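Aim 2 progress update. The chain analyzed this quarter is reproduced below.
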Amino acid sequence: MSLTVKICGLSTRETLDAALGAGADMVGFVFFPPSPRNVSFDMARELAASVAGRAQKAALTVDADDAALSAIVTALRPDILQLHGHESVARILELKQRFGLEVMKALPVETSADLAGLLDYAAVSDRILFDARPPKHATRPGGLGTTFDWRVLTNLDLKRPFMVSGGLTADNVAEALRVTRAGGVDVSSSVERAPGVKDPQLIECFIRAARATQELAIR
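Predicted structure tokens:
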């Protein structure tokens, strides 16, 4: 199975072009005002036109209501909804029926206890994204550049595609994949020169490093 590489939090044409040019499989756009990576609907519409089928588009939201999601879907035309809030299993089923889109549910992880509801979410989601649990008083649920103990996911038998995120870099992505055997990786803050400001060179380096681990696995 090929590795899915996702670059999240894109907000400019230059950095989107860098991600697409380097071979990203999925590009993510954040619709959450507290995030420095939040994009307007106008910008999302412009960037979506540049993707032109070269990668899947993910819309990252946090406990968004139906009106907000409808506006996001209209602007971006995403392939997948990436849910980073406290969305319940019932809410995921409702959104899948309403919008007819794939759903990737992000789950915060710190210890094995955080996997308690995993199978319920996996049963209704198309993908699972494991991200580092944010500090108690954090103002947003992800994009904080912190890792978690990947060994929590060792020997995970999920029967559903899953990705890992949280503090991944070109230097540690190989180890993250070796430990977790994940089918995909998602990066945001680690390919930035400043909060919310992506760096094309760092994007290219990360994708190159992730692809190198895939090539080694094939050998």
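The longest strand covers residues 102-109. The radius of gyration is 16 Å. These observations will guide the mutagenesis experiments scheduled for the next reporting period.
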